[in-house]
Amino acid sequence: PDGWWRDGAAAAERLRDALAPVAEHGLPGLPAPLDVVLVVEGKARRVQSRPGVAVVAAAGSGDDAIVDVVASRRPDPVYVVTADRQLRERVRALGARVLGPKSLLDAPSFGAEPAG
């Protein structure tokens, strides 16, 4: 509802910044520190990584890039946050666990101001 579709790159930057505290503080049931990877596509490919969040620019499909990230991290435990049913099936087939977007939105650390 924040008009993300008008400027996908700015929306991806906001998401990246909101994810940084998750890397530092974890999620309920997933203690910190966490390696957080944000896959971006389209115009958002210009978004850069920042401390706590590695940004992967998808050359093509963002879903394909997410599958590639999951495959490259095997056998380590990987969690993918998505609501996309087909993507959920693809990453589960590689052994990833899936969380819905609500798991982030409800996390106290998501979007929290960085310690300073």
Show unreliable segments.
none
Looking at the structure, what is the overall shape? Answer: globular
Helix share, percent = 25-40%
Strand order of the largest sheet: 1-2
Total number of helical segments? 4
Report Rg. Answer: 14 Å
Determine the strand fraction and express it as a percent band: 5-15%
How many strands, what sense, and barrel or not for the largest sheet?
2 strands, parallel
- What is the total tally of β strands? 4
Order of helices and strands: HEEHEHEH
Mean pLDDT: 92
* Structure classification: alpha/beta
Taking the alpha carbons of the first and last residues, their distance comes to 29 Å
Could you characterize what this model shows?
The protein contains 4 helices and 4 strands; from the N terminus they run αββαβαβα. α3 (85-92) links the parallel β3 and β4. It starts with 7 loop residues before the first helix and ends in an 11-residue tail after the last helix. It is of the alpha/beta class. It has helices at 8-25, 62-72, 85-92, 101-105; strands at residues 36-40, 53-57, 79-81, 97-99.
